[in-house]
Amino acid sequence: MTTQEDVGEFYGEKPFETDQLKAAWNEFAQQRKKAGKDVEYAVLTQDYYLKDTYTIVLQLTNSVKIPILDRFRSDLITHLKTTLDNRHIQIETELLEEEQSYRPYTNREKFDYLADKNPMLRDLQEKLGLDPDY
Q1: Which candidate, 132, 88, 82, places its Cα nearest to that of 107?
Q2: pLDDT tens digits for 41-53?
């Protein structure tokens, strides 16, 4: 019977550089892509950073991606621990707030949006006597 400590003994405590982490991460992402797991690959292409020596924080832009990550989190951690030979590696998630962009819908909103970017449109509208609502 193996205990948690026995499993941890398979990995060392070798320090790693950011470049080594990036290479191991990209290798895992490419494996997922080749296996046809495009949704998992999309999660793996999100930005990440090292919070401290062993904790990797994956920055997600959508809460829907968290359960997707949870499906393969243990495989990712095992891959990183094996490749980087470090048993202390952990992965956390951070949910980023996406900026809400303005999307004009009506003809008037579209015209006003474009006219704000290019004031010459208002002059042209007046000279030609055009109504953007029609």
Answers
A1: 132
A2: 999 999 999 988 8
Residues facing residue 39 across a β-bridge = none
Q: Rounded to the nearest 5 degrees, what angle is found at the Cα of 67, between the Cα atoms of 66 and 71?
A: 115
Q: State the CB neighbour count (10 A cutoff) for residue 110.
A: 13
Nearest to 86 by CA among 26, 33, 12: 12
CB 56 within 8 A of CB 90: yes
What Cα–Cα distance (Å) separates residue 132 from each residue in 15, 93, 125?
63, 46, 8
pLDDT digits over 54-69, tens only?
A: 899 999 988 899 999 9
Q: Hey, is 4 helix, strand or coil? A: helix
Which ranges of 9-92 would DSSP assign to H, the alpha helix? Answer: 18-34, 38-44, 65-84
Is the whole-model pTM more than 0.70? no
- Starting at the edge strand found earlier in the chain, the sheet holding 90-95 runs 48-50, 55-60, 90-95
- Torsion on CA atoms 115, 116, 122, 124, rounded to nearest 10: -50
